[in-house]
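Re: export button greyed out
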Amino acid sequence: MLFNSIHFIVFFLVVLALNQALRRWPTAQKLMLLAASYYFYGQWEWHYLLLVWFSTLVDYAIALRLPKTPRPRRLVVLSVIVNLGFLAVFKYANWLIATWNGTAGLVAAPAWHVTPIDLLLPVGISFYTFQSLSYTIDVYRGVLPPRRNLLDYALAVAFFPQIEAGPIVRAREFLAELDGDQRIGFGDVKYALVLIALGYAKKLVFADNLALVADPVFDHPAGLSFAQTLLGVYAFAFQIYCDFSGYTDIAIGCALLLGIRFPKNFDYPYAAQSIQEFWRRWHMTLSRWLRDYLYIPLGGNRRGDARTYANLMLTMLLGGLWHGANWTFVIWGGLHGAYLAFERAVLARVRWWNAAHPFATALRVVVTFHLVCLAWVFFRARDLAGAHAVLANLARPEADANGLGGLALLLGAMFLLQQVGARLHYKERIAASNGPLFAGALAAAMVAMAWFAPTHTAPFIYFQF
Amino acid sequence: MLRKLLVLAAPLALVLVIEALFAAGAWERLAEPQSHAGTSLRLKRALRDPATGRIDYVTIGSSRPEYGIDHTLVAAEAQRFGRTHADLTMPGTHWTSAGVLVRWLGREHPEVRGGIIALSAQDLAFAYNGYYELGILQPFRRVDDLAWIAARIPFDMHDVASYGVVSALFAWRDDVRAYVIAPDQRHERIAWQDTHRDPHGILFGNPESSGDMCRWGVESLAACDRLEATSSDDSAGLRRQCRELRTRAVDAPDFAAGQAAAVLPAFMSRTRDLVRAQLEAMHWSTPPVVILMPMPHIWNDVLGRGQHEWAVAILQPLADTGRIHLVDATGFFDSDADGGCGSFFDFYHQNARGRERFTQWLLPQLQELLYQGDPGVPASAAPNQGRLRP
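Workaround output, generated via the alternate export path:
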């Protein structure tokens, strides 16, 4: 079920009404939310609910055993193997087979050819396996007691606003929400409505229309001019931001209306002055996860410069691979790893680069944005040849931008809005208003959707991950 | 509590205000002059122009009668009886938009006493002609037309294009989108439009047309292959129509089988009921003259089996009871040696020659069915002429 479908809106209104009606009976309320979540997920492909259930039961059982066993490490490794095993089979098996077959072809050994597996990638598998893994690891580390109530834990894994594309809410955060006061005030309702309205507007008004600009540039780059290609890359940068942050806003807003507070996932990433800051603003829940469950366990920055750079690179490479089974994602992650290492090794020591002067600040923002855009080329391209074709167009600068002025203006305005938004926090301001700002902003979002939502809207980009 | 509810309801209320403004015509000043809605607006402005004055008869219909009837001749003929007969045909008009236009005329030009509804046998397959018809009727509709329109054009929750049935914001959607993409060009076209207003030309003139299909040797759908092999810009429109008609020919329902079935298929009974109800509810003082416009012979390959008979079957009972006058001119050019291709410049539209021939045949019938038969016309004004036959 897609957030951007009438089906979901009707479904959510029913769930919201039931959630309110069952407020006095927490167990019934949780059962209803769990049933609704499984229904939501099962609408896509009900067979894969078995995976969710299996993953839930395995991690639930392991977590219960962890405090009692003399060798807890073995159990955590089992949890990692089960969860990453699912990922490996469903997400990476065919990629590994294709890579193997390519290698076998190179050495002219057709007998070693392996037939690809006919499997559909389960929606959200990357998200809920990470959420589930965080639970067993936290229990192992002793920062979270195992949850005896299976219903609570099952809901933490499958809660519908997050299961398909995040945000990656750690089990300890979700369970704390379940244990806490789920009553929401008038301010929360308004904030949730602002998030939902603006989230839909980001997706339907901006992301889906920017896709019409970006898709041809990446699908058929041959013969396109420098300006067309550059604007296509910029368009994708804002498409993916509006698509993913729009999804997240809707998810956070829906969860809030149901009494669950999700952590923030985006914070004006294109206002970042460095790649390190970009990752503190972009897909923040994934960044946190990678930091806490990968980078720091690898040693973080505690074992010298060389090891720090290696850790950064490894973390980002795996982060790239988490997005999809394709060398383009590996390169995307590798580029970000290299950027982070370069910043730490070189730019951190350049005084003029780090000056507080407005010009230096603007330069850092612009350079960071372009480095991110360069990496987006690999992220969006179908394959390495496609990325090469786009980059080849960008390697032939020319001044011809006929007919592209309007688009350039729009993208420029969106870039400026990121800078202003990072300072003004407009969502919070709109939600705090009881007057024309609240009414006007939400009405503008609804009218804009009525006018500019494409006839056939596309699924959210992150559903494929 | 009430204050909180008001705060939460305020955005929706604001959207409803904007919706009401659009329904009241707030966007019309910025509408694209070349669009379906723009054509409707041009017509609406011409009808509201103080110089237009009284209108006694109207011709309502699609681009087939727009090109297929000589409106200047018709107006002159009405003039001989001391009446005005205005051309309100617009490309794309179908039963639903024609009905909304008639309802609008009832409010704004209640003096209209009768007229022609000119469509084709093809237009009685359904009671509406796709969601684009919403653009045609939007400038003429009022809030209380909603139920009438919704009964004819289905609202589909999964199709944004259908939302225009219930919402003016959605009805103007494409127009607003196009405006946002190129506002300067829109303003230029609107300015040109404003300086070239010609209400009289719109209501009593004829569109330009030239050429004929015989030039391309198109006398059957099979000839489309030959046409497809050409690359001339002149025949690009015909090639596009060829492709459309071939698709239609494949998809055409079997109306003969439908009529022979024990229970009429739902879409047929629905169309029949809606069209009949629409014609029976006409408030004109003289029965409308419903013309099934001529079609070139090639349409015999395109229409569904029994489609022409089905169109007549819907209308004939109304003609038999005197609720309408039916002029079935579908095969008007069939007896021509060239299958009518010399009288059409494309698959739908007559050229000046075809228009002239058809109108000369039609005028005596209009005299009899409209002008002479109208009790408001003095007998001394009625000339005595014989009926022309094709």
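The domain at 58-130+207-381 of chain B is CATH 3.40.50.1110 (Rossmann fold). The button fix ships in the next patch.
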